Design the sequence.
């Protein structure tokens, strides 16, 4: 949902920075990066709180035409969620200005540290719409505009407010991936122009989606990104969303506008216009995860591990050591997200009971078994504690308070821990 600054001229520099961006994104998306953040810097004041919306000078001023442009998902990881902007068409000159809330500078010296602690700085940019379209056209991403049926005062006020917000002193805001991003800024601007009518109409409806379901759906073409969201998000990402919150996804916002009335009771969307055809893979459809194949795989592998412990304990240790290492790394990163960052949707992650930090303590005993020696007096107890935590994860999933949608991971990992417990106990 984001775009770098100076889109055309900066494209090559962004691609040169792709390895570092990949590592940064993996912290949150794939849980594969850890680093200390520098001292926190004060975020610029939210432009929406800096001043009252400007007033319209005269009722006879030309009425701009307002539209919302929706850009389909791209193939680079930061483009997976699509994008949007507000287009203001000047009736006198015919010039179309795109107000785009998704600009950021990946080469800023504190960009990595800000991303890691969830303190990113994005800004609103006003640029000619044709310039905004250039890279979407090059990448084959579809773009369409929904022209809105606003009254004269609403259209003038929205255009004036956006122009004020795009001034350098007002343009920056603190980006929050689910709660305050380039799509929610567009949504909120339209809602303010309607006097809150958009929120009133869509707040009470829900499609049953969650932050997790939308994130893993749109990230699914990139397996590392899908895994990062699914493992790294905690239970707060699994609350059913009203359509208002679901509109953090640009395509969901476009669908919500189609079902909304303006303040005169007419459909808010006056017409829709395709600007660019979509020439790459379409937006992924919602496909709920079937936990049964995961459970079957876990049970088969778990039984194999238990059998292997009776026949080939050293081979069992050779298999267990990489698994425990992976669990230890993932658990360390989940703990870092919880206690070291403001990525609140990754806090209290129940996957810590599956990818357990106690696995680090099993490493020495496993290494001893691999060398044909006794594992040590505490090895069996720690192994039992790891398996018990995995059972606790299943119990936590059944609790009605704040369940986390991780039953497929429980179905896979729990049998593995039980199989290792049985396999090493056979010795």
Sequence:
């Amino acid at each position: 949902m984001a775009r770098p600054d100076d889109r055309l001229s900066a494209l090559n520099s962004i691609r040169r920075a792709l390895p570092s961006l990949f590592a940064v994104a993996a912290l949150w998306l794939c849980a594969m990066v850890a680093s200390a953040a520098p001292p926190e810097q004060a975020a610029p004041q939210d432009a929406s709180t800096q001043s009252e919306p400007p007033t319209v000078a005269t009722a006879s001023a030309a009425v701009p035409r307002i539209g919302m442009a929706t850009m389909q998902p791209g193939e680079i990881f930061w483009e997976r969620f699509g994008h949007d902007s507000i287009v203001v068409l000047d009736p006198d000159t015919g010039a179309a200005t795109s107000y785009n809330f998704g600009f950021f500078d990946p080469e800023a010296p504190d960009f990595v540290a800000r991303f890691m602690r969830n303190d990113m700085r994005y800004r609103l940019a006003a640029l000619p719409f044709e310039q905004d379209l250039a890279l979407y056209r090059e990448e084959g991403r579809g773009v369409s505009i929904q022209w809105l049926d606003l009254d004269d005062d609403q259209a003038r006020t929205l255009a004036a407010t956006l122009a004020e917000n795009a001034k350098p002193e007002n343009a920056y805001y603190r980006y929050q991936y689910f709660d305050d991003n380039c799509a929610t800024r567009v949504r909120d601007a339209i809602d303010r122009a309607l006097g809150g009518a958009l929120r009133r109409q869509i707040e009470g409806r829900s499609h049953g989606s969650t932050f997790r379901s939308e994130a893993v759906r749109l990230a699914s073409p990139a397996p590392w990104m899908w895994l990062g969201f699914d493992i790294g998000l905690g239970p707060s990402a699994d609350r059913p969303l009203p359509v208002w919150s679901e509109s953090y996804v640009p395509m969901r916002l476009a669908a919500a506008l189609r079902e909304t009335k303006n303040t005169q009771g007419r459909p808010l969307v006056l017409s829709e216009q395709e600007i660019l055809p979509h020439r790459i893979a379409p937006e992924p459809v919602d496909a709920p995860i079937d936990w049964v194949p995961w459970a079957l795989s876990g049970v088969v592998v778990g039984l194999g591990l238990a059998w292997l412990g009776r026949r080939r304990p050293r081979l069992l240790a050779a298999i267990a050591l990489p698994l425990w290492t992976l669990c230890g790394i993932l658990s360390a990163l989940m703990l870092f997200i919880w206690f070291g960052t403001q990525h609140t949707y990754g806090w209290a992650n129940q996957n810590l009971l599956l990818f357990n930090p106690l696995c680090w303590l099993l490493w020495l005993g496993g290494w001893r078994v691999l060398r044909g020696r006794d594992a040590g007096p505490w090895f069996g107890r720690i192994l039992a504690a790891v398996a018990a935590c995995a059972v606790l994860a299943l119990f936590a999933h059944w609790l009605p308070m704040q369940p986390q949608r991780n039953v497929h991971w429980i179905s896979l990992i729990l049998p593995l821990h039980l199989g290792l417990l049985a396999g090493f106990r056979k010795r």
User: Anything to note?
Assistant: The mean pLDDT is 87. The chain has 16 helices and eight strands. Residues 295 and 320 are 19 Å apart (CA to CA). The first strand starts at residue 3 and ends at 4.
